[in-house]
Amino acid sequence: MNIITVDFETAYSSRAGYTLSKMQTDAYIMDPRFQTIGVAVKVNDGPTQWYSDHSDDNIGLWLSQFDWQNSAVCCHNTLFDGFILTQRYGVVPKLWLDTLSMGRELYPWLKSHSLKELATHLGIGQKGDEVLRADGKWLSDFRHDELAQYAEYCKNDTDLCYEMAKIMLPRLPNVDIKLIDMTIRMFTEPLFVGDIPALHQGVVQEQQRKAELLQSAAVDRSIIMSNDKFATALEQLGVDPPIKYNSKGAQTWAFAKTDEAFTSLLEHENPDVQALVAARLGVKTTIAETRAQIMLDTARRGPLPCTSTTGVPR
Question: pTM above the 0.70 mark?
Answer without folding.
Answer: yes
